[in-house]
Amino acid sequence: MSPSSPLVFSNVCFGYGMRPVIDSLSLEVKAGEVLAIMGGSGVGKTTLLRLMTGLVASSSGSVSVFNQSLSGVSHQDLFAVRRRMGLLFQFGALFTDLSCFENVAFPLREHTTLSEQMIQDIVLLKLESVGLRGAAQLMPSEISGGMARRVALARAIALDPELILYDEPFAGLDPISLGVTARLIRRLNDALGASSVVVTHDVAETFAIADRIAVLAPGKAGARLVAVGEPTSLRESQDPYLRQFLKGEEDGPVGFHYPAPNLSDSFFGKASRP
C-alpha cells in the first residue's frame, strides 16, 4: 500500500444479514487517478461506495481512507474524513427548493466560515467549471437532467475534495450530456489534483476517461474482483466474464435465463406450480 493512496480496501467482506455481497476484496485507489468500478446490476457497486463513506462497516477486512481506518472510527473523525470527499449521487439529488447557486453554496455554508462574498465567488467559479454560471439563479426544475447532473458535480467539488466518488454518473443521460459529463469527470479530477472513483456499468465512456478499471463479478460468497487494469489490457483479456460484460453478449458465465424447471415439464404439469 502506498502511503499516498487515498483509499485502500484490504480483504473486505460484507453482507446484508445472511446475504453475502462482497467477498474478500482488496483494491487500492492511487493518488491522482480515475478508477472505475464496473460490473453488472446488483453486483454490489453501490455497496462499495457505502463502505468507502463509512455508511456501512465491513464484516471483516479493513477500509482505509486517507490512512484512517473506518473500522470503529469515532463520529467526529468520520465526519472529518467525509469533509475531504466529494460525492455525486445517482441522478444528482439536488435540493429542489434551492436555486442552482444555493445548491452549490450549501456545503460551503455548512462546513466553512467563509464570507458571503467569498462563497459567491467560489460558487460562480464552480458553476463556470461545469459550464453553468449562467444558470446560477435557475431552479432545478428549470434545467435539463444533464444540466442538473453538472450542477450536482459543481456542488460535489465545492470544497475542493481530495477524493471524489461518483455513483452511476451517466445513468439516464442523453449521448451529448453523457459525453460532456464523462469529460468533466476527467478534467476536474486533473484540475483539482484529486483521485476519483467512478461506479458505473457504461463501458464506452468509462474506458475513454479511466486510468484503471476494476471489474466485479457475482460469486456464491459475494462479488469478487475478476480484473483490475488499464483499459487496453482489459479489452485484450480472455476472461469469459470480462469478455461477456464488455461486449454485452447473451451467452457466457452470466446466464440469460433465470433457473427454472424444464419447459416441457411445466407445460405438462410435472413441475409444481408456483
Fold topology:
Elements (H helix, E strand, L loop, with lengths): L6 E10 L2 E11 L4 E5 L6 H8 L7 E6 L2 E2 L5 H8 L2 E4 L11 H12 L4 H14 L15 H12 L6 E5 L7 H18 L2 E6 L2 H7 L2 E6 L6 E6 L1 H5 L4 H8 L15 H5 L7
Parallel strand pairs: 3-8, 3-9, 6-7, 7-8
Antiparallel strand pairs: 1-2, 1-4, 4-5, 9-10
Describe the structure.
There is one protein chain. With 274 residues, this protein is of the alpha/beta class. The chain has a single domain, classed as 3-Layer(aba) Sandwich (Rossmann fold), CATH 3.40.50.300. The protein is built from 10 helices and 10 strands.
Number of strands: 10
- CATH topology: the name is Rossmann fold
* CATH class division: Alpha Beta
Counting structural domains, the number is 1
Instruction: Label the CATH architecture.
Output: 3-Layer(aba) Sandwich
End-to-end distance: 51 Å
Query: Major beta sheet, specifics?
Result: 6 strands, mixed
- The assigned structural class equals alpha/beta
Task: Spell out the key features of this protein.
274 residues, 10 strands, four-stranded antiparallel β-sheet, Rossmann fold, globular, six-stranded mixed β-sheet, alpha/beta
Quickly describe the structure.
The chain is built from 10 helices and 10 strands. By secondary structure, the chain is an alpha/beta fold.
